[in-house]
Specification:
Rossmann fold, 12 helices, ProC C-terminal domain-like fold, 2 domains, 8-stranded mixed β-sheet, about 280 residues, 8 strands, alpha/beta, elongated
């Protein structure tokens, strides 16, 4: 793969078709990074949604209700096109823009469950395709994005798309066969963490703390632990051992959690998510 130093100092023109929650999060990462030197054009169905993004620096925001050709106009002017519409809408959008894309334009899927083969079949051999799986912490620049390259995507294509997603977090390159599995960890993972915070908050309330106190303790404990994990570079098992004094209170609590077989529980939960991802890929 080419080194980052071989890439241009800024990213080429980008279009985000369907700049909803995920596309919008990536857009904000791009704007914050200062790397979107070629400009970004985004489309949304309504003028209200388009207006929310119009004030961002270097962003052209198109409302499809006012400009019916907005998707094709944006795609025709871009070197990288991110497809952020709902999965069921993807085939129609690809057919809409296929004739407007210049040869070599890189198309990137943000749509869960839609395969690279679907993109390549509709767009043809002259359009390199990559499939991505970001997660919601992209909103705060802390995403994990899985990235899989299609058959005609070059190392250079992958490098520039990786750089794009690194504006809103970390990137893991995987074969497409691993994208669904990745989605069960990093894609769904924020929900697992939020559930744990939710349950720890309930436990605190059960011990006599009011809602505000319980929420503060639970949330800041998770935020602080995550920050320590990131800053220290230590294995989480080692950090857990440091908190767990022999014969102490934490050791007793950890024993209860381990007796509940959390390893089996998380394996079973992520297996269930993977099964559902495969169902969605078949249209079930």
């Amino acid at each position: 793969m080419p080194e980052a130093t071989s890439l241009p100092p800024t990213l080429p023109p980008i279009a985000i078709l369907g700049a909803g929650s995920m596309g919008g999060a990536i857009l904000h990462g791009l704007v914050r990074s200062g790397l979107a030197g070629g400009g970004v054009t985004v489309t949304n169905r309504t003028a209200t949604k388009a207006a929310d993004l119009a004030a961002l620096d270097g962003v052209t925001s198109i409302a499809l209700e006012n400009q019916e050709s907005g998707n094709t106009d944006a795609a025709a002017a871009a070197d990288i096109v991110l497809v952020g519409v709902k999965p069921v809408m993807v085939p129609d959008l690809l057919r809409e823009i296929a004739g407007a894309l210049r040869p070599g334009t890189v198309v990137v899927s943000l749509a869960a469950g839609v395969t690279i083969a679907t993109f390549e079949q509709i767009l043809g051999p002259g359009i390199p395709v990559l499939r991505s799986m970001p997660n919601t912490p992209a909103v705060v620049g802390k995403a994990v994005t899985g990235l899989a390259a299609g058959a005609t995507a070059t190392d250079e294509d992958t490098a520039v798309v990786r750089r794009l997603f690194e504006t809103c977090g970390a990137v893991v390159e995987v074969p497409e066969s691993q994208i669904d599995a990745l989605s069960t960890i990093s894609g769904s993972g924020p929900a697992y963490v939020f559930l744990l915070v939710e349950e720890l908050t309930k436990a605190a309330i059960g011990k006599g703390f009011d809602q505000a106190e319980a929420r503060l303790m639970a949330e800041q404990t998770f935020i602080g632990a995550a920050a320590l994990l990131e800053a220290s570079g230590e294995n989480p098992a080692e950090l857990r051992r440091r908190v767990t004094s022999p014969k102490g209170t934490t050791e007793r609590a950890i024993a209860v959690l381990q007796d509940a077989h959390l390893d089996v529980l998380f394996a079973t939960a992520t297996d269930a998510a993977l099964a559902r991802a495969r169902e969605l890929a078949t249209g079930a």
